[in-house]
Amino acid sequence: MRVRAAAILLLLAAPAARAADVPQAAVATIHADRPGPVIDRHIYGQFAEHLGRGISEGVWVGERSKIPNTRGFRNDVVAALRDLHVPVVRWPGGCFADEYHWRDGIGPRAKRPVTLNTNWGGVPETNAFGTHEFLDFAQMIGADAYINANLGTGSPAEMAQWLQYMTSDKPTALTAERARNGHPAPWRIAYFAVGNEAWGCGGDMTPGRYADLFKQYANFLKAPRGARPVIVASGGNDNDTSWAETLTSQVHRDIGAVTFHYYTIPGDKWESKGPATGFGEDQWISTLAHTLRMDGFIAQNVALMDKYDPEKKIAFDVDEWGTWYDPEGGREPGFLYQQNTLRDALVAALNFNIFHRHADRVRMANIAQMVNVLQAMILTDGPKMVLTPTYHVFRMFRPFQDATFLPADVQAPDYKLGAVSVPSVSLSAAHTSDGRIVVALVNLDPGHAMPVTVAIDGANVAKVSGEILTASAMDARNTFDAPDAVRPAVFTGASLGGGKLSLTLPAKSVVVLTLQ
Fold this sequence. Notes:
This protein folds into 2 domains: 40-401, Alpha-Beta Barrel (TIM Barrel); 408-515, Sandwich (Immunoglobulin-like), CATH 2.60.40. The chain has 10 helices and 27 strands. The protein has helices at 75-83, 131-141, 156-167, 173-180, 207-218, 242-250, 281-291, 293-308, 342-357, 389-396; strands spanning 26-31, 45-47, 69-70, 73-74, 88-91, 115-117, 123-125, 144-149, 191-194, 230-237, 257-264, 315-323, 365-368, 378-381, 384-387, 404-406, 408-411, 414-417, 420-423, 425-431, 437-443, 450-457, 464-469, 489-490, 495-497, 500-505, 509-515.
């Protein structure tokens, strides 16, 4: 989780009148006869940091809470995440990770030290949710574990001992301690990161210095044969490609992935991002224009990685992404709580379509964050829980997990407002393991429906079904009083004929179709 970022430069005009002409139709061709890489299910990953009410109150309430729970975990949140088929969760940070000492979070909770969360609100951290709780939680929701370890204030020995504590199957002092703490058997850790945002809150380093430290720390990360996690290196952000280039060219062993962080904001100033609700069409289009920059950022980094790793052994993982708005009034700014609207749902769908196109390198992504923080799946208030529009998009896109990417050509009119212009339609397609073709479409235009015709080369399909997510207002959202204001509905507006798929995409909508 970043605490600073360079301003994103994009020419945005003041609100201006929309063009009066009705958009022309969009046309596309899906090449089912030219299958691409598998879309790794870990692209649909989550991120849970010790930040605000993301874990405490959002996931963890403790066994004595009146909120229904199992071993301290909220039953409603666990059930909702299980239904989402969450593939992986990243923990404990973020910036929090590089000040987190894992021994503070093991053993009897009453004896765990209370520490200070210096990054997020300067509040006490009870450490009630530690290694055992996180791995129990990940197992409960059916997710792989992604551990982000402390490089900034830790040591090689501390990091190596944490991995050994979790994964070793030998009778040592560490495994005996793990057993005393309630878990005799080793855990499987899927990913293990050496630090976070080393360019900023993780140490304010240069790429070269971090590369040397990564090699030193990774050298001591040992696990049983067949149980070694993917070792993840902390990479760059925004338009900085130096981290991916340096790490890929200078680190020749142990590295399985390089990370990348990019947050979508409506404006061009980090200090004044814009509100989560009550925005105008100028901020609607600027938000979508900014999120579409993800495609170029990934392409630039991947092009450099391809020079040094042409076999694509090293993944490029976007382990922090999502929207970031100004803090809501009356709340602790450092807790990063924000409402989630239809605009956020479209941001999520656009990013998924981008990740699909880069599935040969992007093999994991983690939205920031899972509950009560930034672009959350779930919001809670005491015993109440609400699913956000972003949650519903994640659920609609479940068929893409581990499906085979199908390339597509798309021609669509631009959606314009003032000096800002974006394509009006985004599309991606994939072939599922059970023989279906799944197609995701997004209409970015909030004021016009868009007719779309899609040719499908190399496949015979006879049946189409689908879901749609849309609403009347750009900032439509779910609240604790109206939890179902924005939710998916059956979409019956698509038809097949003459080897083509035809439909009209309603304004500001996400549609996912299944073809059989």
